[in-house]
Amino acid sequence: MKLTYYPGCTLHGTAREYDASARAVSKAAGIELTEIEDWNCCGALEAIFDKELSMGLSARNNMLAQRTGLDLVIPCSICSHNLSRADKAMKTDGAFREKIEKALGEKYTGVKIKHLLDVMVNDVGVEALAQKFVKQLKGIKAVPYYGCLLVRPSEVSKFDNPENPTSLDKLIKATGAECLPFTQKTKCCGGNLLMSKQDYAFILTKKLFDEAKSAGANCIVVACPMCHMLLDGQQSMVEKAHDTVIGLPVLYFTQLIGLAMGLSEKELELDKNMVSPEKLIESTGKQEEKKTEAAGKKDEVKTEKEVAK
Question: Domains of the chain by range and CATH?
């Protein structure tokens, strides 16, 4: 499978571990990624100043992707949301399309845009992906966190139920990890308020942590760099603001399935995660040891019975 790849600004900066694990897992899954040449920001930051400029920036990326003749895959939920909205605008808003086509000097016929989670679950397929897993992640108890934009709005993100998505749940279960119920799986993490109302952003973030810990989770699995920045990167700040201890690792779904594929911690850049997942990874090893030990004892009993006969 060949796809055009748009990493977006964050994956080339503060979310390098997501980019590294996305590329590593895609390669292991048989997906060939070709990064768009000369791509630009999706316009997420510009949106608060000039919505047309923001939409135009995303439209330009779609134009560049169109030239490849391949479907476009995006790991960032915000970028996926913005480029999908731009694609819809180019198809339904004649005046906007004409302005963009004139500026870029070519016609827009459209490009199929998919989030990486969509590709893994629906194009590769959970069963086919599971066949590439060499390790069962027993010991991991995860809650799936989709965030606001991954499955919303439904007119631009159509691969899962916007109210009760299950694609991430299925992937977690396929790795052998326990997927726990999480009522806030599509609630806002507070990312859009981090710069303007940090105290309120941290209240929203803490609510997610509170439910996850009450459910018995030992990690949260995400598919968005903004959500990861709040839950992982700002976790110590949330602890300080609310005088509490959270200590909950936050993994990108690509890091989780990468572990199940047997990829190394270095390949998945797990050392870049602010909250160390070392104890979490060790728990999967202990489960394997228990399994091996139990199998050994069973063989011993079997041998003793055979000798007795």
Answer: 2-116 (1.20.1050.140), 133-289 (3.40.50.11810)
